[in-house]
Please model this.
Amino acid sequence: MIHTKRSLGRRLRAATAIGAVALLGLTACGGSGGDQVASEFTGEYTGPEVELSFWNGFTGGDGPFMEQMIDDFNSEHENINVVSNTMQWADFYQRLPAAVTAGEGPDVGVMHLDQLSTMAARNVIVPVDDLATTLELTAEDFTEEVWDAGVYQEERFGIPLDVHSLAMYYNTEHFEKAGITEAPTDAASFADALEKLKAAGYETPFWMPSLWPSHLMNLSLQWQNGGTPYDADESKANFASPEGLEAIQWQRDIVDEGFSPSNVAIDSQYVAFKNGETSITWDGIWQLNDLQESGLAYAAAPIPTIGAEKAVWANSHNFFLPRQTQPDPDKQNAAKVFIAWISENSATWAGSGMIPARESVRAAGALDGMPQEAIAADIDSMRFLPPIPGIGTVQTETLEVGVNKAILGEESPEDAMTEAADNASTLMEENKASFGE
Model:
């Protein structure tokens, strides 16, 4: 989504909590496609007319772009009519498992990459390896990170539509007044920019949120420091590793050194930046269209490399096929044609503020002149959560809590992240048993 996505963290907290309960009622299958037998997919659909139900959560400024793509697809395919069912993402993740179990799920859908493994582990969705094979989709046309993250237990469950990461937004008028001529790219230039902005009269130029998207900033910093936030093989969280502690300490230092207020509520940092009250903010590229419409004098750039390695948190919308109680081979193959067409024509999707996942689409000029073009230049540095079932709930109940306590000064960064890591590791072990791994 675009301007409404800054509330995604709150909505997903409800979704993961409720969705986890619903998922436990499904039978685990260890990533198997179950009884989903379709006729061989050839890349085309020549069968009888079918109507496909397409579930998605594009309720914001991204919605019109998807609707336009659906209309274009329908106009080119006389025997396939795609009907969009759009809902809030929190409702989406709550409704999907129950609907699939009741035989009332969609024919095709799109979800966030970090939800795929959970849905796959509970047999809510089925593998799409044949689709990828027939279309000759490989890691060569995507980044290896996003392509590999769609695989769970050696089967592919998602076809990436886009990638969307954190970015750095800065007020160009503030920068000019402070004598800053270029966007900061590393720890030294970022610290220098903050000092210059403060000297120019911008007392708190970079607000550090205590909640969303602070944990995404923290993940980015952990990766930049060479850390691995989650160890899937050992079901262990590494937030309290030296790399993790360095990350959270940097965030807390922003407050201690006076560059940020001590208690920044969720969304406040973005609203303050949009209103010209702050000079720099780190937020998702889904804010681009909203900022353009605001009239603010701003520019966007990749977040600085505070650590030793260039890295930034990212997510991706992935197409999926749900399990069907009564599989219809015609609908299944028609759905695959729809996914293939949208993937191949995803240049239109760039208008939503997202970055098309396919390199071939980007190379053809999809991002020329687009505000996210500078962010896409660093696409190889984007990092995604590992395909661990239940990872969304782990994030919400542990990492977000630990980061929040440390930023607010309720606990020392070391105590907060040690507690968070211990709780996350426990949850990961419990999830491993619950999801039948």
